[in-house]
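Bench notes, afternoon.
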Amino acid sequence: MVFDLEPEDGYELRRIQPYQATKTYLCPGCNRDLPPGLGHMVAVPLDAPDLRRHWHYGCWHARHRRTPRG
């Protein structure tokens, strides 16, 4: 499945290819791991780049329909 990263106000969106994914991250949308080797995306707030978060594509696209997990 391919997701297009459409521009989002206030964020820079970056696509991470599977070969670029070398560490494990926690997706804030589902609170599950993004293991090494899994393609995903990074959302970087323009006003606070240190608060960037790594997301599953589907979680990013569904974020407005979900309640935050934690």
